[in-house]
Design goal:
The complex is a heterodimer. By secondary structure, chain A is mostly helical. Chain A has helices spanning 2-9, 12-28, 36-44, 49-84, 96-109, 112-115, 120-145, 154-178, 181-192, 200-218, 221-227, 231-236, 241-263, 269-281, 285-309, 318-340; strands spanning 147-148, 151-152. Chain B is an alpha/beta fold. In chain B, strands 6-7-8-3-9-10 form a six-stranded mixed beta sheet, with helices on both faces. In chain B, helix 6 links the parallel strand 7 and strand 8. The chains are: A mainly alpha, B alpha/beta. Chain A binds chain B through residues 81-82, 85-87, 222, 225-226, 228-230, 232-233, 235-241, 278, 282-284, 341-344, and chain B through 45, 48-50, 69-75, 77-79, 81, 84-91, 94-95, 98-99, 101-102, 132, 134-135, 152.
Amino acid sequence: MLKLAGNQLLKIPTLSITLLMVIIAAVFLGAYSLTTTEVLSAIINNDNPQTSYLVLNIRLPRILLSAITGAGLAISGAAIQGLFRNPLADQTLIGVTSGAMLFAVLSIVLMGSVLAMFTEAIQQASVAIFAFMGGFGTTYLVYFLSRKNGQTIVMTMLLAGIAISAFAAAIAGFFIYLSDDQQLRDITFWSLGSFGGASWLQFWITGPLVIVAIMVLTRYAKALNAILMGEKEAMYLGIPVEKVKSKIIMLTAFIVGICIAMSGIIGFVGLVIPHFLRLLKGTDYKYLLTSSAILGAIFLVLADTIARTVIAPAELPIGIITAFVGAPFFLWLLVKSQREMFLT
Amino acid sequence: MITAKNVSVIKGGKTILKDISFELHSGMICIAVGKNGAGKTTLLEALTKANTINEGKLLWENINYLEISMQEMALKRAVLSQSVNIAFPIRVSELVEMGTYALAGPMRKKEQAEIIASTLEETGLTTMASRYYNTLSGGEQKRALLARCLVQLKCSRQKGKSQFLFLDEPTSSLDIEQQFKLARLLKKLAKKYQIGIFAILHDINLAAFLADEIILLKAGRIIKKGSPDAVLTPKILEKTLDISVIINPHPVYGCPNITMVPLTDETPDEASLVYQKSNLENEKYL
């Protein structure tokens, strides 16, 4: 059964169609479930401004934003795992998550009083900008520390990433300790991830950037394949390894930085989606990068739909759903496929 | 032609290679022989541009290595490493296809697929093409890596430009039949396609059979280089490899045929007498 799923359902055209269907289905689902006729007549005839506002200005940007975030996180995870030649790697490893967390906390706690006079949108934007700068900057620091004689030493980068993440977490912890109840609630909600604040403005600012970065990243598929055999072998095959490494690290930090800035920390997607595809289809990056992006998008749209419907009209942080649904499923797949495939 | 001029490599304060000078020619097979730690792999990595050198010069057709990019280098040479660990499971066909990453010019997918298929056939891997690399035996893995090298050379071939194949202990973990097949293949690549070959071997008899030139390395220096007849003598081998040998002409090919004689304290006197007598009879190798 796994083989059939691997061969048919996970082809890129099939995945793309599935994504489209999931996005359409998600429009109808929510705190207020809508029927097809309600949605169509609201959009086409514009006879029900409330419904058309709900669909066009609240649900659609939110769904598209979650799709882009899922794609960005999953493809980054796939690229980082390949670059580090390590199955445990994901974006947390290069410091982007902890850096974003630290700066988001700083924005919420320190800037809270300054920003209190502004609207909620500006407060949110401040957290997002801080988080992006923190995430991207921290990765750059990790990268900078692990460079020697024009080469990046991957092992040093791994360890530097862990050390700097711990350091950032300590500072963040200190400021969380200082925070008041409302700030603490904001921080907790942010750190579990949510698309609750999604708007068209957010989508248009981040969407094109992330999509372009994803498209650029897919061009490194061959390089990532070659690096699977080690950096020396990749050089023998004509891959300019140092250039490729720095570009992939910066691209993933950029993508993940934006995704986290928009939605908070959503774990699990970057780690699990690429592994899921690898277990069923193998490691060829020419397939893996694109399919990870599409499946990541499907996964996050579904997770977000669950997040906003399961305890409607309230909603759950999406990070809870991704781990709660994803982890058991992944474990099941892992145990089952170990018998069918040779895993090392 | 590759020219090494007074090349030295220093790693972590230790001199690994000292004052190495020699030439590699198209269509010729050059074999490096030496004890563990003699600097053979470091030399191979310097010649393939995987390592930088600290002193001296490396030239490819009179162009300094420093001016040749990694992409250009991949058109000129392929490298078979001693062993390769792959981070995630990939199929043999995917591995071999990586040889097409370095292309001299536009090449149709169909043409690439034909080269891959014929190379898989050549290396006896056709039936294993869809298997995962990490499920293969050591020798089969080596053949898969060799197939990747061959695809790389075939896909990046340019008229009038020389190509080299570097092999680091290619016969380790190959069975006897595969060792023979590899030896024949290397001869064919050199003769028919004028590919220059530089290989590290521990099997001195195979080296004697294959080589146009042998380089004997000890502690980072070239002790002796030249044709097998000139280099493989009991004295020189004792000096560089710390072994005692009897050398006779090969019954079929005429190249030196080396028999090792463990002349330790435990060796019966009889053996040492045979050794001396045998070397006296073949004076040309003394």
